[in-house]
Structures are given as structure tokens and as C-alpha cells.
Design brief:
GO molecular function: nuclear import signal receptor activity
Family: Belongs to the OPI10 family.
Radius of gyration: 23 Å
Number of helices: 4
Strand order of the largest sheet: 3-4-9-6-7
Largest sheet: 5 strands, antiparallel
Helix content: 25-40%
Distance between the termini: 38 Å
Structural class: alpha+beta
Number of strands: 11
Pfam families: Hikeshi-like_C, Hikeshi-like_N
InterPro entries: Hikeshi-like_C, Hikeshi-like_N, OPI10
Shape: elongated
Protein name: Hikeshi-like domain-containing protein
């Protein structure tokens, strides 16, 4: 069905390395894989195996969970995108941590994989999301530079005219109308 590799940490592992919870859910206990150093595992490569095809409206979603925290979505693969290298931004361990005794299982980090409806998942278009983020940062930088040219300093506070946002926005719109390449420069 699927396989995973942790770059610089493992050999390819298939679904048999995971515990199957039910027909559509699998869990990899990171304690058995890396012990308590789960947070040093920063990436996972997940891929569909050739013998398995998902329906076009389904995805294989990947989630991570630090001890005591909720599962957090990382990304997914689909038939249109049958492999992906996903960054594992482990959430902070939750406040529900309990000391383990001899009769309780140790608390561990987990990686979850599940078959889900594609429309129910966040956007998988990482390149588009990065592009939007880059444009937002460039627009913010443009605004900051414009405001900085009008600033006065009062102690540790910057002082700008009250209508500075209106003035910047009008100037921004006028330049975008005059120069068709102006907005394109924000995408680079």
C-alpha cells in the first residue's frame, strides 16, 4: 500500500512497520524506531507502492503526535502526487504527560497515516502556498519600507502619520496599474 523513508535515518519501510488500527488507519510508534529522540527526525518521505492505487477522491494523509499532544497534519500523497517529502514540525509535548509505572505503557511520539477524503484535507499545493507566503512577505516589506520613510522616533516607539496605510495602499495600487511587472516582481 505505502512505504516510508526517514532521510539520513532509515532504509525504506513498508506498511508492516506500522501498527494497523483499522482498515484505513496506521500508527508508527517512534519509541520503537528512535527512542525518545523523535524530535530529531525532521523529515519523512512517504510513497504509494506500485501495487496500490487510491481512488481519485482519496489521499493518504500523514499526521504526527508528540507525547501528550494532539495529532497534527503534515501532508498527504495522492494518485496524482504519489510521493512526498514532508517536514515534521513536532508539536510541543502536551500537558497530559504522566509518569509511567510498571503496569502502564510508555508515552511516545507517533506518526499516523490514514486514508481520507481529498476535499477534507488542507491544500496539498505546497508550491502555491509558498508563493503566497513569499508575496505576502514582499508586500509587507514594501509597506514597512514605505512607513519607515515617514517615521519619527519617540523613545522606543515609531511614530507615523495616521493616514499612512491609505497613502501606501493608493501608491501601491497606482504603481501596479502603471507597471505590469511590479506585481510580478513580488513572486520571485
Amino acid at each position: 500500500m505505502f512505504g516510508v523513508v526517514f532521510p539520513d535515518r532509515s532504509f525504506p519501510m513498508d506498511i508492516s512497520a506500522f501498527s494497523q488500527i483499522d482498515t484505513f488507519h496506521w500508527i508508527l510508534d517512534m519509541n520503537t524506531f528512535v527512542g525518545e529522540a523523535y524530535d530529531q527526525v525532521r523529515e519523512i518521505c512517504i510513497f504509494l507502492l506500485n501495487s496500490f492505487t487510491l481512488p481519485p477522491d482519496k489521499a493518504l494523509a500523514v499526521y504526527i503526535q508528540s507525547p501528550g499532544s494532539e495529532f497534527q497534519f503534515c501532508g498527504a500523497v495522492t494518485t496524482a502526487r504519489p510521493s512526498a517529502v514532508l517536514t515534521l514540525n513536532w508539536p510541543e509535548p502536551g500537558g497530559q504527560l504522566q509518569l509511567t509505572g510498571p503496569e502502564t505503557a510508555p508515552v511516545s511520539a507517533k506518526i499516523g497515516v490514514s486514508v481520507e477524503d481529498l476535499v477534507a484535507l488542507p491544500s496539498l499545493d505546497v508550491a502555491a502556498e509558498k508563493g503566497v507566503e513569499r508575496v505576502a512577505m514582499k508586500v509587507g516589506e514594501n509597506l514597512f519600507n514605505y512607513m519607515q520613510s515617514f517615521c519619527g522616533v519617540d523613545g522606543s516607539k515609531l511614530i507615523v502619520p495616521m493616514d499612512i496605510l491609505d497613502r501606501w495602499f493608493k501608491k501601491f495600487q497606482e504603481r501596479a496599474k502603471r507597471d505590469p511587472n511590479f506585481l510580478k516582481s513580488f513572486r520571485m
